[in-house]
Design a protein that fits this description.
The chain is mainly beta and about 375 residues long. The chain contains one helix and 24 strands. The longest helix is centred in the first third of the chain and has 15 residues.
Amino acid sequence: MKRTIWLSLLSLVLTAFAPLRADTDGRFLGRAIQFDGKKKPATLPPVAQPPPRPLPLPEPRPAPPAPAISLPTPPPMDNRNCGCVRLLKQMPAEAAYGQEFAYQLTVFAGENVADVLVRDLVPDGAVFVRSEPPARVTGNLLEWTWTEMDAGQTKEIRIWIRPEREGRIGSCATVSAVPRACAFTTVSRATLAITKTGPATAIVGEDIPYNITVSNSGNAIARQVVVTDNVPDGLAHSTGQSVLTLDIGDLGPNQSRTLPVVLKAVRRGRVCNTASATSPNAGRVTAEACTAIVQPGLQVTKSGPPEQFIGKSADYTITVINVGDTPLSNITVTDTAPQVTRILNASGATIAGTQAQWVLPQLAPGERRSLGLTLTTATAG
């Protein structure tokens, strides 16, 4: 019975407050709310509300352990995949089962590269037959390598395979390379050469002309070339110096300079005159010229009877000796007899009146020649 009375009272209260507008956003808390927009109820004094009790905080739960993350080991930095090469793979749209066909890989170098490596996989369901150029085959992996490629250069690879199943087949290829930076220079070299020429023989007291020629047969400039000529014993220079220094300066490629040097022969014997040329960037070269300094000498003697009877003939011998150390040529020997005599005989000579003359074309050092002369006279004296 009591439960029925309470339910009736509760239903009456809810029915009375049903027209009230709900305050759902808290904007009208503590203010009067209009009833159906017609009239306002009297303002009620605010009722002090006790402060809300804080809700108990839940006890913190231990966080589950974070799963271990395995980071891959970074590959070594070898500058591959530099983006300076491109790869194109082309395959026919259709192929026949069991019949081999070819597809193509084309490598494009955008810049100078080295260590070019192309890799391709034989598609599943196909058998590798051959390739041009030949590939290095490891299982289903095909590889081609080139030491280097220049910018703008292309390489083509053709691969033949034979499909062994129907359906869609194919694979992907990769290319890698490292940038290639090149630098070049031209290495040049200066190459000096020297020659010295002069007469093979000279006579004591003569001036001997020598020529020193320095040349550069290289392809670089020979810098600060200096020629030194050592005057040997037996020769003398007009300045009295025993070492002559001649400054040529720079000598360009394929250039040469000739320097005349005159020395005087002062003593018999064989002398060798050595000259050298030096350059800071071409080294040192030497040359020599040897000359035999000789002293010519000719000795003439005449022998015969100290006296002879009038009308009788007198024989005389003329001896010519080369007492020097050089050959003599075109030697003229002349004998003039007294006016009261007459030349009866002079073998090999030309006779003109009382004069006989011989010409010896050649007389070697130490050689002697004897000439005969016969005279007669009709006058005492």
